[in-house]
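Exam prep: given the inputs below (a chain plus 1,3-dihydroxyacetonephosphate), describe the expected output before reading on.
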Amino acid sequence: MRTPFVAGNWKMNKTAAEARELVSQLLGPLTDVAGVEKVLCPPFTSLFAVTSMLEGSGIGLGAQNMHWEEKGAFTGEVSPGMVKELCGYVIIGHSERRTYFGETDATVNKKLHAALKHDLTPIVCVGETLEEYESGRTSEVVLRQITLGLADVAPANAARIVVAYEPVWAIGTGKASSGENANFVHGQVIRPALSRLFGEETAQAMRILYGGSVTAANASEFFQQPEIDGALVGGASLKAGEFVAIVRAAVK
Ligand code: 13P
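Solution:
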């Protein structure tokens, strides 16, 4: 039995004051939902602002990115140790970072190893572009991202890695994948790849989330699929009522 997992990726939204306001709306309703691992991923500048609010709430805090080096001359970057001071989770390799900031499977792999070393729970994002989808290359692309991105991880450390399948064509477009299509990619591409890397038992324990235009209205279409263990939510995580409804829908 895999515990359902729902994370809100706020992307570049909310000042620290706005973040505190949103967290104050989420706190009571989210704390009341049992049986789902819940995580909020605000921008770096809001992590410190909300960390004390979340203490004892059962709601986790995550960063949206980090560098793999411990410290040094990397202007504008944030180290794993800095993230670990405030967070239990970190999103790695989001498609927006791959598209706009030059991240590759190789940098994803470095960040993943750094996250595991610092005892952070990594949420590793994979997913094909529209062009790759339309040319029937989804399996090939996702397989490559998993195989290279998750390379050289010891099976004993792999169970806590969370994978998020986010087809790029479904992100922020309002055109979500169908539950069936996502379930196919999770069950026929990602989990078998995890099994080859880490063994079947570990692969069965790992959570695979769907992301891309998840809303309160379509969440249960995804959560009723056997291979979908939760969601990575963008736009809808910025509205308290929507996000709470999505988390509620994830309860088994
Ligand atoms: P949307 O839910 O806004 O489509 O974003 C999904 C996403 O990229 C989450 O990481």
